[in-house]
């Protein structure tokens, strides 16, 4: 995530700390799948997600979807979504680190 996106992430008063941590983890996971060129895509997806206003814990699935649709290869997309869903399950279970 670029410096401006990180600053925007932390400057959002509406974002719960746990949501910020999960967003950061999802971004890292996406970049792991897409590569460093995915940084701009992460920034765009994050800004669109913010504008949509679904920024609570329940809106994180919308963020996963926004990232996932950018992965063109079906196997890569499925792997990303599966791993992202596991992160969200931990969130729902209260085990976010």
Largest sheet report:
none
Question: Number of DSSP helices?
Answer: 5
Could you tell me how far the N terminus lies from the C terminus, measured between alpha carbons in angstroms? Answer: 19 Å
Radius of gyration, CA atoms, in whole angstroms: 12 Å
- The helix/strand series, from N terminus to C terminus, equals HHHHH
Helix/strand layout:
Elements: H1 3-11, H2 17-34, H3 39-52, H4 60-68, H5 74-93
Overview of this structure, please?
- The chain is mainly α.
- Helix content is 72%, strand content 0%.
- It is built from 5 helices and no strands.
- The longest helix is centred in the C-terminal third of the chain and has 20 residues, at 74-93.
Concise summary:
This protein is mostly helical and 97 residues long. Helix content is 72%, strand content 0%. The model has no long low-confidence stretch (mean pLDDT 82).
